[in-house]
Amino acid sequence: MMATTDSELSFEQALEKLDDRLKALEEGKLSLEETLVAVEQARDYFRICQNQLESAKQRIEVRPEPEPAVTTD
Amino acid sequence: MEQPDTSYRPWSVSELAREIRSELSPLTRVLVKGEVSGMNRWTSGHYGFTVKDAGAQIGAVVWADTARRLPILPEDGHEFIFKGKVDFWPKTGQLRLVVDSLEFDDIGKMRAELEKLKHRLEEEGAFDSARKRPLPFLPRVVALITSPTGAVIHDLQQTIWERFPNLEVLVYPTQVQGPGAPSSVAGAMRRCNEDGLAEVVIIARGGGSFEELYGFNTEVVVRAILASRIPVITALGHTSDRTLADMVADVECRTPTAAGERVVPIKAELLAMLNERDRRVRREAELRISALRTALNGRRDRVDRAGPQSMSLREGRLLRAWADLSRLSPLAQMNRRLSELSDRRNRVEVCATTALRSRSLAIAGLRAPERARGALNQKFHTLRLGLVQRESRVRALSPEAVLARGYSITHDAKTGAVLTDSSQTTPGQRIRVRLAIGVLEAGVLGVTNDGND
């Protein structure tokens, strides 16, 4: 159901798509089949958003200069 | 020191040199203003240059140690106020100003040059808001270009992790003041882009004077920011002046904390936002299901006749999708646990009920042959009864039964044909009369045609 590119969506993009589906659902004009699809898609986008929030790790890394700075004349 | 007798013995050069040095002692704390020329970095790391005005010039030196703590270095063509002492080099016979600290004397001139650079950048469109990139809504990795020793890094790290505990921070340590700052900051910007790990860069320092922030007004830093593919935020502290770096940055903040707040959303808020969406989707799904159910109820019989599975299958899918959705919601986790528990309890109950039912079925199974036999007997009995009834009915209809009531059957003895008409016989003909019991062999004595006789 979910396109492969959807997994590369940013949090913001996935949230936007989730809101799209939500809006369609709330308008109440969907057929049963469309409601099913919208709910499933909303579920997928919800999962993407959640993954985005949880995927990162708390980490600090120092990336030092490769050599001491040489002052230019 | 013993005063040499000038009239009798000349001073050696060394003695003169020593004398000059000692006579220079009142000049150990001088303030002198002059323009720099011939700025040169020696291999030893020290800086040599000439300070001059319209009528005089003097050699000057900045020791490497001193240079490291200075916010700025002398630059050709600029006027500075130098603080230091005058010293004499006996070996070379040179008199030099040993600079301990310096400050711009020609800030007005510096500002004019800054204005010139600013004007040039403005014409290039470097400050256009259209050129500025939006910050990512939720960066996965944030880069910090700052001094590794200051409080800035601590403040930023704290702000970021308070808002979003699981976020990756890359620190590119740089000099944020002093003569090395411009190339250090520009180099860090370049490395950050080469690494391509961060989604946003914060350049930070804890404020400072115009001179201390000098590096952020240099073209090399401005160009590095402009060349960055990654959006850049400046956070150079509370200062009266905006630097050129601030002006070309995609977003400009005052403090590192403000930058942290600008870059990193609060995770709890995002989660709350997501959960709110989750609730709404589930509510809509519920509403839709109940609406469908109402609609279905009216037509259930017809629908059931038409295709009972398809409707309940769809309803089942919708319920499943909704259940999946609720399973994902962190807020629903507790409910899920509870419902899992009650699910388990139900399953245990179902198992128990099933077990009980199968036991009672097994017990019933033990009685089955007996019951079958009973049923069979019943059947035999019915069949037998039917047979007896049929037998008596057949018997009632059979010729034998008629004969038993006194009738007889007469056959032609020769042909065996049954005789029903007296005219079929002639006197003397042999006949056979069949009675209920036994047969009479007889002959016809006479024939009459009157049946009533």
How does this structure look, described?
- The complex is a heterodimer of chains A (about 70) and B (about 450).
- Chain A has helices at about 10-25, 30-55; one strand at about 60.
- With about 70 residues, chain A is mainly alpha-helical.
- Chain A is rod-shaped.
- Chain A contains two helices and one strand; from the N terminus they run H-H-E.
- The mean pLDDT of chain A is about 80.
- By secondary structure, chain B is α/β, with parallel strands linked by helices.
- In chain B, about 50% of the residues lie in helices and about 20% in strands.
- Chain B has helices spanning about 15-25, 65-70, 105-125, 150-165, 180-195, 220-225, 245-250, 255-265, 265-305, 310-330, 330-365, 370-395, 400-405, and strands spanning about 30-40, 45-50, 55-60, 80-90, 95-105, 140-145, 170-175, 200-205, 230-235, 250-255, 410, 430-435, 440-445.
- In chain B, the strands form three sheets. Chain B has a five-stranded mixed β-barrel with strand order 1-2-3-5-4. In chain B, strands 7-6-8-9-10 form a five-stranded parallel sheet, with helices on both faces.
- The mean pLDDT of chain B is about 80.
- At the A-B interface, helix 1, helix 2 and strand 1 of A face strand 1, strand 7, helix 5, helix 9 and helix 10 of B.
